């Protein structure tokens, strides 16, 4: 089942897209937004797997929004302008649908999304030596990793549900070799973040989707030695 969220600054366009989606089998519109900022504030907490983004919007366009979305969300762009096609596909999106949108063309885009979602269900996992013995952890469940404050040879791994497990006697170098390189990045000497846990970022700081004591979201400082590689990952 495809659960999609729509973002378009025009209410008529949203209504039309909803109408089309209702006519396509195995597609459900979970929510719709006409403001990119509201969309970004809520998207990580919405149970969906596909986002339909209009490209031309005031303030922040769909390309900019797509760069900030978790990698777990598949993206379909819609636009009336063909000149965005190359830039859109540079973001590795599912499809690029020209307006006015036809049901048959949108159906094709959803079929592509469904194929990609099916492939992504094949989860990667690693068997780790942890504080609770040999433990198999799926890498798509990892939100954040940091050096243990008790023993620097160990690493605290936080899962998406907030569970923390201690990886025993493992260096960051070894960790990064084991983790999928497209999904994780070292932020500084003591922290690794899953790209899916990044909410927003600047050249100096990453704000995550992880809850933190005293702050609404956990903030990570980007070390000088890691800035260039991080910016390359983000296409900057």
Automatic annotation (TrEMBL):
<dbReference type="InterPro" id="IPR001789">
    <property type="entry name" value="Sig_transdc_resp-reg_receiver"/>
</dbReference>
<keyword id="KW-0597">Phosphoprotein</keyword>
<feature type="modified residue" description="4-aspartylphosphate">
    <location>
        <position position="54"/>
    </location>
</feature>
<keyword id="KW-0238">DNA-binding</keyword>
<dbReference type="InterPro" id="IPR039420">
    <property type="entry name" value="WalR-like"/>
</dbReference>
<feature type="domain" description="Response regulatory">
    <location>
        <begin position="3"/>
        <end position="114"/>
    </location>
</feature>
<dbReference type="GO" id="GO:0000976">
    <property type="term" value="F:transcription cis-regulatory region binding"/>
</dbReference>
<dbReference type="GO" id="GO:0000156">
    <property type="term" value="F:phosphorelay response regulator activity"/>
</dbReference>
<dbReference type="GO" id="GO:0032993">
    <property type="term" value="C:protein-DNA complex"/>
</dbReference>
<protein>
    <submittedName>
        <fullName>DNA-binding response regulator, LytR/AlgR family</fullName>
    </submittedName>
</protein>
<dbReference type="GO" id="GO:0005829">
    <property type="term" value="C:cytosol"/>
</dbReference>
<dbReference type="InterPro" id="IPR011006">
    <property type="entry name" value="CheY-like_superfamily"/>
</dbReference>
<dbReference type="InterPro" id="IPR007492">
    <property type="entry name" value="LytTR_DNA-bd_dom"/>
</dbReference>
<dbReference type="Pfam" id="PF00072">
    <property type="entry name" value="Response_reg"/>
</dbReference>
<dbReference type="GO" id="GO:0006355">
    <property type="term" value="P:regulation of DNA-templated transcription"/>
</dbReference>
